[in-house]
Amino acid sequence: MKPSIILYKTLPENLVARLKEKVDVIQVNNLSPETVQANADAFASAAGLLGAGGKVDGALLTAMPALRAASTVSVGYDNFDVDALTQRNVLLMHTPTELTETVADTLMTLILATARRVLEVAERVKKGEWTSSIGPDWYGVDVHHKTIGIIGMGRIGMALAQRAHFGFGMPVLYNARRHHTEAESRFGARYCDLDTLLSEADFVCSILPLTDETYHVLNAEKLALMKPSAILINAGRGPVIDEPALVDALKSGKIHAAGLDVFEQEPLPVDSPLLSLPNVVALPHIGSATHETRYNMAATAVENLLNALEGKVEKNCVNPAVAKQA
Ligand SMILES: NC(=O)c1ccc[n+]([C@@H]2O[C@H](COP(=O)([O-])OP(=O)(O)OC[C@H]3O[C@@H](n4cnc5c(N)ncnc54)[C@H](O)[C@@H]3O)[C@@H](O)[C@H]2O)c1
Ligand SMILES: O=C(O)[C@H](O)CO
């Protein structure tokens, strides 16, 4: 008998067919308590879990005693209780490599869109305000040769540094948990403590994972260190920034603008004060959202799950210690 899995994301047909070669697939819409309750037997007997978003915590794991592997269509896994998974010998697989370049493109998009006020001026053109030669009220600020400060010099941080250094001639500052010799040799990047980075960078770009340590690391005190001309970009996770403190910094001119792909609450509520600020570019968490990259992520997540269920976890595993115990 084939093992069964819970699939909580819509996947292309060919990928579902690939899964069905090896496992029985039970498709659900989400991982809400209502869904779990309505499909209690399926959840109880499933050996695998595949999808994106949704909280995978102790309560869900209690409802899934047969679970052996979970596979997320994402690189970030802050929505998983990794300790609880590891305690129960459940492997967690993710997609760390497929999206790197695409997310770096998104970060560059936010840098350019905020600096050149792309949304604002395009909107003015649509409204028919471009009636004579433009003046300073349409101007933005330069990106090229300005200093970029990257908080989180991991895979995506490196891809951003490459674009900034080679494409835009930008000096690169960075902060991470360790020195990154490759970033220093390839991009001349300079390691800084967080306060120095915040006070020197023209573009402060956060691509941090969300952890207990990074929660609200960019709070009012830290934002106050930024130059009034500086622009803050965040494509890591929303709760890394204290959002009310950011709104205050943007409203009072303590910082120049912000480009955001992630928020404390997603989807961003329509009454968020961020949406009424002209100096904010807000995107709906599209960091990796191209057809090519989302397909590649889904295909990798499928193979990750099938491999994990067969005990093959050479790569893409968040808690490989589980495999060693098996
Ligand atoms: N907006 C999106 O759609 C999108 C897409 C992909 C990834 N992300 C987010 O970006 C994150 C990073 O992805 P990645 O592939 O570059 O991960 P990565 O693991 O390669 O890099 C993470 C970097 O953050 C640093 N870091 C972690 N904790 C830190 C701390 N407390 N202080 C300073 N630095 C710290 C690490 O040292 C590392 O350099 C993901 O975890 C995810 O949350 C968002
Ligand atoms: O972590 C990721 O892969 C993206 O943020 C999508 O959730």
TrEMBL record:
E.C. number(s) listed in UniProt: 1.1.1.79, 1.1.1.81
Domain D-isomer specific 2-hydroxyacid dehydrogenase catalytic: 5-319
GO annotations of cellular component type: cytosol; plasma membrane
Sample GO molecular function, one term: hydroxypyruvate reductase (NADH) activity
Domain D-isomer specific 2-hydroxyacid dehydrogenase NAD-binding residue range list: 108-287
Domain of life: Bacteria
Pfam families: 2-Hacid_dh, 2-Hacid_dh_C
Compartments (UniProt record): Cytoplasm
Keywords assigned: Cytoplasm, NAD, NADP, Oxidoreductase
Broad class of the protein's primary localization: cytoplasm
UniProt-listed PROSITE patterns: D_2_HYDROXYACID_DH_3
Listed Gene3D superfamilies: NAD(P)-binding Rossmann-like Domain
Subunit structure: Homodimer.
PANTHER family membership: 2-HYDROXYACID DEHYDROGENASE-RELATED, GLYOXYLATE_HYDROXYPYRUVATE REDUCTASE B
Recorded family membership: Belongs to the D-isomer specific 2-hydroxyacid dehydrogenase family. GhrB subfamily.
Function description: Catalyzes the NADPH-dependent reduction of glyoxylate and hydroxypyruvate into glycolate and glycerate, respectively.
Identification of the protein by name: Glyoxylate/hydroxypyruvate reductase B
